[in-house]
Amino acid sequence: MADKPKVYIVIYSLYHHIYKLSIAIKEGLDANGIDTTIYQVQETLSDQVLEKMHAPVKPDLPIIQANQLADADGIIFGIPTRFGIFPAQMKALLDATGQLWAKGSLAGKFVGTFFSTASQHGGQETTALNAVTYFAHHGLMYVPFGFANKSMFDNSEVIGGSAYGSGTITNGDGSRQPSETELAISKNQGENFANILNTYHRGKKKIAATTGADSDASIRSLKAVSHDTTANDKDTPAITTTDPEGQTTQQKNIGAAAGAAAGVTGGAAIGAGAVSAAYKDPNIGAGAGAENNASGSGANAPTDVKDAAASPEQQEQQRLQQQQQQKQQEQEKLQQQQQQEQEQQKQKQKQQQQQQQQQQQQQQQQQQQQHQQQQPSKPSGTANTSTAREPKPTQEKPKKKSLMAWLCCSSE
């Protein structure tokens, strides 16, 4: 890894406006310890056309090839806008990065943008948005400028640039040159880009150094054990030796106290006879321990000495396995939660059905009660009150008088 992060400023500049901004950006990068190089893309216009356009001589800059982009830690593109998108010269370079995309050569690198347009609102932001599609496909990490410079809030003068990067306004004939404010904003963008890249670069170096130190410490620990001598046999060969690739070798004819002073990464000590079960070697001496019993006078030894000092590749595999186990546990938890939710839903549905049945029964009972109330009540007994009639009092028929009695009593 290089001592300094490397940044390429890649520009296309017809009238040197972008070129002047790139110099200011380079100042900001250089001031913060960045190894900076300005490149220009290949011109596609002929000399005759450039002469008719009154274009000045190109700046003395190297022409970049697409494969060179992979050598940088960060890239900042200086793009003059053509109708809100790239000029053909810049697009030709980006379209030639297909092989870099196939290999993932630009993935993880930082990238920024700055612009020039003939007028205000001339397409600087849309050019940035079009550039982001290229960056996203390559896996580049886009670093916008934001509004890090207070001059960007000053509306008393014409200022190019936006949250996507610094910029300048050129006028239609190219007569306007970058102002001092625009150049200061460009330098500020270079400083901000450098701070982000330096922070990432330092962190990456620290991680690499820490990982390497841990691996070296494990190897040194095991090699130190291999040179120790035991109390019973000073000529006893090393128990295990781990090379830088993480391979562990085993020595035979181990003496009586072969495991007494052996140390493993993590601080555990293998006691006398603690390593025998892992090997099952008939040549191991009397104090080596019995098969299927790895407990000696010291701490229990690991079942496999190769696990004592894992190489970085093995550590990475272990980390991936742990992640997979965690994912499986999370999936199991989700499945359990789903099952619980399903059971709760079933219970809820069952309760609802029971409630509905109870409501139906209550409704039926109410209907029966209403029907009974509507019918007239019958008295106890066989007779019906609606049809029963009171018996009429019997009247005695007058007895017929005999003729003689009638004649005798006619004076009455």
TrEMBL record:
GO terms for molecular function: FMN binding; NAD(P)H dehydrogenase (quinone) activity. Residues 7-193 form the Flavodoxin-like domain. Residues 290-301, 314-342, 350-375 have a biased composition (Low complexity). It comes from the Eukaryota. Residues 238-250, 376-388 have a biased composition (Polar residues). Residues 224-250, 290-412 are annotated as: Disordered. GO terms for cellular component: membrane. Pfam families: FMN_red. Belongs to the WrbA family. This is Flavodoxin-like domain-containing protein. It comes from Circinella minor.
